[in-house]
Amino acid sequence: MDPLDIKHAIERAGSSQSEIARERGVTPAMVNRVIWNGDVSDHIRRAIARRIGRPVEDIWPAYYLRKFSNG
């Protein structure tokens, strides 16, 4: 998914980046950086994936599929 798709999926799920940030104890800016691939944070990525009901590997395949296929 591209970053705009992720942002829209969060909105369609009735949530927001701020809500995810509060739940994870980080700033909304941090959640935004993760969405836009500026930062890699597994716990935030997994929180986003749970919120939108998609496997984390579907949202960030280049990271997760490569990471786990290399051993």
UniProtKB/TrEMBL annotation:
SUPFAM superfamilies: lambda repressor-like DNA-binding domains. It comes from the Bacteria. GO terms for molecular function: DNA binding. Residues 1-66 form the Ner winged helix-turn-helix DNA-binding domain. Gene3D superfamilies: lambda repressor-like DNA-binding domains. Pfam families: HTH_35. Keywords: DNA-binding, Transcription, Transcription regulation. The keyword Zinc-finger does not apply. The keyword NAD does not apply. InterPro entries: Lambda_DNA-bd_dom_sf (IPR010982), Ner_HTH_dom (IPR038722). Belongs to the ner transcriptional regulatory family. This is Ner winged helix-turn-helix DNA-binding domain-containing protein. It comes from uncultured Desulfobacterium sp.
